[in-house]
Write the structure tokens for this entry.
Amino acid sequence: MNQSDVLPHLFRTEYSKIISVLCKQYGFNQIEIAEDITSETFLVASQVWGLNGIPENPIAWLYAVAKNKAKNLIHRDSIFQKKILPTYQRDQKAFEVELDLSDENIMDSQLRMIFALSHPTIPLESQIGLSLRILCGFGIEEIARAFLSNRETISKRLFRAKEKLRENNITLDFPPPNEWEERLTSVLRTIYLLFNEGYSSQSQDRILRKDLCLEAIHLSSLLLEYKETNTSEVNALLALLCFHISRFDARLDSEGEIVLYGDQDRSLWNEDFIKKGEYFLHQANQDPKFSKYHLEANIAYWHTLPDGSEKKWETIFQLYTGLLELEPSQIILLNRAYALFRAKGREAALKEMDGLDLKSNPYYFYLLGELYLGIEPKKAKDYFREAFSFAKTEADKSAIQRKLDLI
Amino acid sequence: MEDYLILMRLDLLTKEAQPSPEQLQIYMKQYQEWVNGILSQKKFKSGTALSTEGRVIKSNQIMTDGPFVETKESLAGFIIISADNFDDAVQIAKDCPILMGEGNSVEVRKVMGIHKQE
């Protein structure tokens, strides 16, 4: 690794660990102090390493500084002491704190953190923002870029979310057994949305977006490390994310414009991720469940197969039908209609499109254009024009324009 | 050539609005470039950063937690350079990236050698 990459890399990997351990130790309501300690630790590292070079064991260096900072704070800050001590009164160790930085405790703390940040009382948008900040070590600026927002808005949102954590007395305790399943569902949804934010975000920053996706993958891999959270749903989710990210580089052309699935250069698909996806899908299918992630992962798997594969589009059509049962949605119907087009032809798909009510969705009109292309080119052109007028991003607009130019 | 001590004082109380990895990378590069610049002029003698924690011992042997956090001016580190004269040393010190932080300061002192070899 390049010398100058070391610090950002460590920031991504260690930020969440240090902050999680601090929060577990001092109480989740001290999350802001934990954030400050962790940020300052990295700030000091940037200065000291710049002057003296990178230490032999940079991770140990970071932990030592964070530990000292935490200790100092306890000794120094009387307000902090007053707040902390009542909780720790039974525990005389409060003053002699030694942060437990064993791998085991770090993992445990991080897992608790994931669960806390996905607490159902926090608005979804804030869950994602907080996860980006606390779990992935994203800067406020980066989160703002990812959400196409500005610094102030994001700071306020994160602040309110932390207030909410306090108001609702959310702790870093694991949820009781009867809530476990619901909370894991919530955790998976956060990861899923985190990935979506990166995958279909309209932010122009390509590297940032890919980073977001990789973080989501990292978080779900983390869940597999624990017996309790290594469930078939988590495996299915991870498989889904791997299949999706395998196409990341093929989805945009050199100008940053969207390349539709059918036009993608398959040599750009990432084979490693497809292999990983297959492995996790296999794990997930050991305990076959009719879950959203199972169905979506299977759909994504079939999408990785070459177009000529037997039963490809029939199977995808059936999987979408299953998904509809779980969450009826017009978008899924639209996707299913495309699968039907590929499996059974234009007529069957057009019949299916009749029942759809997506009159301001550019993709709806795009598919109509596609379906009429082989039958009535004039009608197709009208639909593509309609799609153009509803398109929200420049990338979509130019993709549609290219289609129009070809007719 | 004479030796000069450059003391870097850092406002440890100001909360840097939580830097992003990219910012940290830039900070680190700035420090490296500053030190490398001095090295390339063959004017760097030695130096080190200091821990942010410290103990202050007062004349009555009472020890307090330091460094002087209440003064907002903690010593972050120092380097010793050799420079042609005071002005030259000040020129070098002026480029110290620490000065980009509000409230931070750099102090230049000439090292008065008592054991001059010559």
Observations:
- The mean pLDDT of chain B is 77.
